[in-house]
Here is the input.
Amino acid sequence: MTLTGGHLPVLELHADDYEYEMSDYEGARARWCPGCGDHSILTAVQRLLAAEQLVPENTVFVSGIGCSSRFPHYLKTYGFHGIHGRALPIATGIRLTRPDLTVFVVMGDGDCTSIGAGHWVHALRYNPDLTVMMLDNGIYGLTKQQTSPTTPQGFPSNTQPRGSWLPALNPLSVALGVTNASFVAQTAEWVPSHLYATLRAARQHRGLSFVRILQRCPIYSSAIFLRAVQDPANIAMLVHDDGVVVPELGKLYKNQIAHDPHDLDAARRMAGATDRLHLGVFFRDDSKPRYEETRRVPPRTAAERVALIEKELDRYAV
Amino acid sequence: MLTETVAMPPGAGRRTVLHVPEHTVEIVSDSGEGAQKCGQIFGAVSAKMGNGVWTVEIIPAEIQPPARVPEGASGYRIRVGSAPVTNWGDATTLAVAFNEQVLLARHRLDALASDAVLLVENKWATDEDPEIRAAWDRAMVELSGRDYRIVPVPMEEQCLTVVDNPRKGKNMFALGMLACIYARDMDRVREQIAYTFRKKSEEVYRSNVALVELGYAWAEEHLDLRVEILPAATTDSLVVMNGNEALGLGAIASGMELCAMYPITPATSVSHYLSEVFERFGGIVHQAEDEIAAVGVAIGASYAGKVAFTITSGPGLALKTEFLGLAAMIEMPLVLVDVQRGGPSTGLPTKVEQSDLLAALFGQTGDAPHVIIAPATIEECFHVMITARRIAETFRAVVMVLSDANLATGVTPFPRPRPDERWMAEPIDLAPVPEGQKAYQWDARTGLSTRIIPGQPGGMHTVTGLSHDEGSKVAYSSGVHQHSSAMRSRKLAVLQSLLQPPPVYGDAKGDLLIVGWGSTKGAIEEAVDRARAEGLRVSSLHLRFLSPLEPGLKKIFRQFRKVMTVEINYSDDPGDPFITEENRRRGQLSMLLRNATLVDVDCWTRVPGEPLRPGAIVDAIRGQLASGGRES
Here is the structure.
């Protein structure tokens, strides 16, 4: 029998004052296509992990199925590469059981807004403390170019070769419509400083932070963000001290909109705007209840449990 | 017999006392008239007086069926005996009905013994609505085809002397009558009423007690029948509950802390019970957005270090399938309870069936070996959860527990469990992972490996549903998949090596061996007793482990001329049109046994939407022994 694959995790115990570097979070070599936007997202995440000094063994990345869901394999943290569309229930189970762990979720657009749409809506409502990244390239990539809910209307694919029939689903509007949603943002992988700043704001938010990351697929949907990539005038930056501010981007992205992310009505209006892509934090509210905190119960020792079970059995005693 | 309906029994002087080893009582009414509450109290009091008891609910298919229609019959059936009672028995010997239409329903279902005593509310006979009077008359004609003894009782008229709304009181009046007929201890009856209505006002208690006493006094004066069933001789300390409560309490005693579920009949009452009490024990019930999310949350919790469980029924099991395959692939400990109901599809949501066995075993795509255990009694519903959690953790495996609607709603006393700290899971251990230890460091002989959980330094890896090697790295060579498949499968053989051959009920040799699984144990063994009393050489065997199967079956089967499973699932009858030896679709367990033993295991299965009656199994035994058939 032969075993293939990379090396196994090696024991690395760090002293408390050890400072993690980006390379400490590197897992297997990423196998995405050259030019795939996922590479830059992986880099931003590694930079975030180092900036936040997250302890690798106390960090979990949960993903579904699709190109982007290979993400956990490329990090040296704990990872859970599950099944299509179901990352959020798994991540919720982890948070409910182990609030000491920092949990990230990585999904694609098909994963999150199509097969996993039910879980997406309900996870937003449960609002567990999860950093949720939806890597949206508007296409199914791993299965080779099928229309996804976020595929622009008219865009041809292998399943809708004469152009997608329906107007694209707007994930921001959906997320902003869910009761108890507490953080909704949009960023783009081709603006790395904004991507990083947005992920950092998301990570620091307590509750479910939903970040839609616009991501180019060079093979199957290279054209869909072309207008915004080529001309910064087609992008509007939402800026606010409680949102994301990247000063150096001001020169390139002249459309700056001061938006208070506590203003839900304004957030919903802008999410629906079709003139240009809006990047930034649309909404945040740290006061929304977090499910794992709402449900927390005092732990019991085995001995306490046995005594309580005896009492419960008394109720049924003949 | 119709004439007897008008003859009121004489007074105390000519009372007949029936001394019987057992009687089966039922109270049946329109939905919402409280017959179930009456039955529950009668059953609980009987159990507390030391009788063997087995109760079943009579449930209408709709939540609010119209009044006075046979399909609306709702109630409770209690089999009371001197010895422990292991199943619901054959037919009702005494029924109390709040109208003649619900009684008709029971008659048409063949639920009433041919000489049953039927106490029926008589106000309908003289109702001002001529259609109701006509319906009563037609019902009496239909019922007259049997030797029933029909006793009209002025329940409403009597209740109105105590309360304004008899619809809310008849059940307690009926309870009083039953307490008189069966000489129930009235102090215990009052105690049980106080417990049942503990959340209601003192006034409710007082009026209910007054109604019970009224029913008792009325029966004392007007009914000549008295039934004496001596209590069972037992020194055991007993508890009495239904199978779903036992599952819930067993889950608590197993140390599990998270139940993730989505509402589905007949499983949901486990979660109702747990939702009421679990937090006191440090656990929670998570009601997920759907069946898929429920198992996903449980898997997430298990991954994080605590074995969690999910509870469902057939349609939910189908939805969870993909996640169950994932759990098998990543060797995630998980307990799944399937309280089976009639299927396929929505099927018979409130009725018993044992037809999920093959779906549970083979439902996942690819090869996804896992453990299946079926409790055979309500007592086992408690203990199976402790076993299941332990096996799931030790073998890093999915363990499915197959209960059914018969166990779920049946109530019977059983020896009080003695909870033990050793039943609980060890606390999460976040010790560093020894250098070089891999995520799936399979022991080459057993396939067993040590689980690494998040938070353990040095153990970082990504679990994946993709084929993977010992280090959980995605595997691209065929050798890895062959080996990892073998390792996951081997664990079942190792588990089987730890099990004992199942005991045979009756002689170890004979003409016929009945093999059953799940809730049919009581009925099968009672049938075997009766058949043996007729001189038939029949024994039985009851399996708890369905995957892996318990060891030594072939050797046991060889001692019998014939082997036949008895199951509550569908199989073709050999004599039916087009059915041949080769195309016959067989009972689910019999298919597994034929495969595992190469013995020609026959089957007798029925899907009546009710538990099997011992009498029907005796008939099947006689039929099997009378037929030629192949020998084992």
